[in-house]
Amino acid sequence: MKISGLPACAGSSRFGIMPTAGRHWQDLPCYTLQTSSDPMSAGGTPEIAPRQNAGMFFQILPFMEQDAVWKGGQFTAALDKAVFAVGYPNPVYFCPSRRRPHQRMTSYHHQWFRDINVVSQLSGRGNYNHADLDYLACCQETSYNEGGVTVRSDTQGIGPIVRHAAYSAGPWVPSPLINTTLTFAAITDGLSNTLFVGEKRLEVGQYTHTGKTWNQDTGYASGWDGDVMARFIWNNATEELVTPRGDSEDNPAFVTQRFGTPCCGGTFYGSAHAGAMNALFGDGSVRRISYPVDPRVFARVNIRNDGLQAQID
């Protein structure tokens, strides 16, 4: 857990910013191109946020001695590099108490490489691997209410890991780039009070399931998606919150009420451990968060700049 989260901190010093949540689940990792309009031309190095549309867990690979994966293996064409990286099951991204590194071969193709539509190239090559992930970055919420007051609202995210662009509604088309990147200075609640990465709750049947559910289909490299980004609010208008719980405690009725399907545990925090989950905070500390935890306290540590008191030991 600590190994997978610490690079988020290291990224701020190497590139001058923290990693981002990328752009969207339909985006592949971005590499520089020899020919700007041809994704099959020779690819160079991975782009850096905000030009990198893949999410945080792809962006931090070079800080985990995973340069070879980050750079696309031995492939030459940029699109081949991206597909290789998406399918590589990194052992650090899996909880050893839950399962071995796992990938799924699916027909669930991405759509964009940079701003180039690659549906035809990907469909032509058939299915390809998507490596799973047992952790979630904080967080996919964009607004938080408490006591009838909007405490914090930001369309790019209220947690420490934010997205840098949005999509228009169906069909999804990339919106203009938004240069939303953060440094540690943006974490005004303090690094020791702000959750960066937590364990991800899964139904036990999802551990080695080879099909796809919406919180486990596009893989660890996804941007701003339920595969990689946590939620902690059930209904912001009524101020109903979601707290972590164990995999074996999953409640299909709860999931159906919110999402219309009992397929999976939602993109919420939790773990395979009895009674608690592990969470990485911005100061590099890993803490056990017991079940149950006070919903308000837990919500506050997910927000980078709410100014509210919160202490989890």
The general outline is globular
What count of domains describes the coordinates?
2
The averaged pLDDT comes out at 85
Strand order of the largest sheet: 7-10-15-16
Report the portion of residues in β strands.
15-25%
**Structural classification:** alpha+beta
Radius of gyration: 18 Å
**Strands, total number:** 16
Spell out the helices and strands N to C.
HEEHHHEEEHEEEEEEEEHEEEH
Largest sheet: 4 strands, antiparallel
Stretches where pLDDT is under 50 for at least 5 consecutive residues are none
State the end-to-end distance.
17 Å
Task: Report the helical percentage.
Answer: 10-25%
The tally of helices reads 7
What does this protein structure show overall?
45% of the residues are buried. The two termini are 17 Å apart. With 313 residues, the chain is an alpha+beta fold. The radius of gyration is 18 Å and the shape is globular. The protein is built from seven helices and 16 strands. The model has no long low-confidence stretch (mean pLDDT 85). The chain folds into two domains: 2-91 and 109-129, no CATH class; 137-301, no CATH class. The protein has a four-stranded antiparallel sheet with strand order 7-10-15-16. The chain has a two-stranded antiparallel ribbon with strand order 1-2. It has a two-stranded antiparallel ribbon with strand order 3-6. Helices cover 17% and strands 18% of the residues.
